[in-house]
Every structure is written in C-alpha cells, then in structure tokens.
Design a protein that fits this description.
Blueprint (H helix, E strand, L loop, with lengths): L1 H27 L5 E6 L5 E6 L5 H18 L15 H35 L9 H21 L2
Antiparallel strand pairs: 1-2
C-alpha cells in the first residue's frame, strides 16, 4: 500500500512540475517585457523585472524536486525532531516520506498560484490572486502542525 501511495504522489508531483513549466512557456510570448516579480502583503506589485524572471518559479520548483528526491532516497540523513530508535524508525521514516511529498505539492501549488497572479497582474493591476497569500502560508503551517502531531504520536 505504501509503495502505491508513494508512486501516486511521485507521479502527481512530477506532473505538477511539468505543468508549471508548460504554463510558463505557454504564456511567455504574450507577456509584456516588464512584469511584476514581487508583491507586498496587500497584493500590489512593488518590484518589476524582465519577463525572463517568469522562469524563476519553475526553476526553483525543479531544484526543490531534485532536492526532495535525494532526501527521500536517504531518510537517515533527514533531521528529525525525535530520537530515532529501532522501534520508531519505520514510522518516522514513513511520516517523513509522506510529508516531503505532500510539502512539494503545497509548494508547487503556491508557485503556480503566484505565477498565475504575476501573469494576470502584468495585464491588469486590479486582479486578485486566486488563492490569497495568507491561505498559502496557513497551508504550509497547517501541514507542519499535522506532521508534528503524527511525529509525537509515533515517537
């Protein structure tokens, strides 16, 4: 069951990465030469740059994908908030492998949301992000809280 779940996660994560690159390449030609690259907490652009900056998010997503793939291959190298023993090793490694895969999904969706907002904002300053920044931050924090609860249960 665990292997099937991991295969589904891995296919979905790779699909998200491919979609992020496809989305960027698809919209690149239509972008103006200057696009917003940074936003304040109110959602207003406060930094602008060349449209080449649109490839930063897919680039970061690719780097994270590779990094997370290496971390998952060697679970002993990860930093755990509890002492790893023979009794809790399997449970802690399972929790870490699921969390890393889940975290990549959340981060990729945040990147995709920001990229979409950046592209739409380049043409209309009145648009709003599809998912507010606060919701994205809460998703990451909520994921951490749930993970720490499971880590505490199985320590």
């Amino acid at each position: 069951m665990g292997n099937t779940l991991f295969i589904i996660f891995d296919i979905f994560n790779f699909g998200l990465l491919v979609f992020l690159w496809w989305f960027t390449i698809k919209h690149y030609k239509r972008l103006p030469q200057t696009i917003p690259v940074h936003f304040d907490f109110d959602g207003k652009a406060d930094g602008f740059g060349s449209k080449k900056y649109s490839f930063l998010m897919p680039g970061f997503a690719t780097a994270l994908y590779v990094l997370f793939a290496f971390v998952i291959r060697d679970p002993e190298s990860a930093n755990y908030p509890v002492h790893i023993t023979e009794q809790n090793k399997d449970a802690q490694f399972l929790i870490m492998e699921i969390f890393i895969r889940w975290l990549y999904i959340v981060i990729s969706l945040i990147f995709l949301n920001n990229l979409d907002y950046m592209f739409r904002y380049a043409f209309d300053e009145k648009v709003k992000p599809r998912v507010p920044l606060a919701m994205s931050i809460l998703a990451v924090i909520g994921s951490l809280v749930v993970t720490f609860i499971f880590i505490g249960i199985f320590k």
